[in-house]
Amino acid sequence: MSARIILQPSREKSLLRKHPWIFSRAIKKVIGKPNSGETVEVYSDKGDFLCIASYSPESQIRARAWSFNANTEINLAFFIEQINKAKILREKEILPVSNGYRLIAAESDGLPGVTVDFYNGVLVGQFLSAGAEYQKPVIVEALKQIFPNTGIYERSDVDVRKKEGLSPSKGWLFQTDNAATTVVIQEHGVKIELDIEQGHKTGFYLDQRDSRFIAGQYSKNKTVLNCFSYTGAFSLHALQSGASHVTNADISATAIAQAKRNHEINHLTNNVTFEKADVFKLLRKYKEQGKRFDTIVMDPPKFVENKNQLKGACRGYKDINMLAFQLLNPGGTLLTFSCSGLMEESLFQKIIADAALDAGREGKIIEKLSQAKDHPIGLAYPEGFYLKGLVVSVV
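Structure tokens predicted for 23S rRNA (Cytosine(1962)-C(5))-methyltransferase RlmI:
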């Protein structure tokens, strides 16, 4: 390893706390000519070793730490060890309730830029940093050794790779005879069919597993509106728990078709309807019609990609939640979420409070929800916390 990064004076504090990012403005000089993704050593201005990292010449995050141990070699053995540690944690916590789980949660699992989900015998990976892309062949080999005879599909077809100077990438990295892009997983007794080739992210939102189960507990004998329904998973749990009726709303015809299919394979086709519609417009239509619900699930896509979008996102969250409050029966329940990492928990709660105020309703938070256990948050990496949920009882 010949290349080195030397930091500006007093810019090593975050690394000493084992936060894995080194920003471009923190770098004093680069010794050597590392290529994109190559491994470099990082030193303080005083010459103290800080970490071993991957180099990303085009990103604001100029390097991401693989290890804070000077003796670590970033090779096949390293990735096997890291993946095995993550696998043990997931299998202990998740397998009793689901055969779909997040195997690798990027920085929170010590593998910056690497996301890998396991869907009932198929692995789906995203390689979103220069270092992850550079090490991809080695990571794939490690996955093959830990999960023999398991297909590995790549879904690195996301815009964030542009920040690392990378092009989108998608397709099979390792295909077995029985590997397919349509997979059925189970969670809490519910079957969910997903499309790892065309679905959102890696095909599904595993992070909402716990919240879906909890939503079912607020749905028995209730009329439920499931907004931004996608695969219909919240609806499945509601109906399994005895909801009197569920309305699923999503703007995507593909998502509606998948949701219908999921209700069919679970034999939950009674007491459910599907609305292909813009949720914002649909909520306003329901308000004009005087329609009411006992329980509303508000799980929108990410509204905030960068800090410049935060103000507009706040308006969006407030608008849809204000309408949701207006559509709830007295004594009803709103389960509302934000998956935007830049939306702080306290700010999200304030937005929901303001939405209730503008709707002329009063509510109390009776439960706070977050990402499932297979989406851990590194103690030194607070950015790993992104999914915020509130269960609000409405007067």
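The chain has a mean pLDDT of 96.
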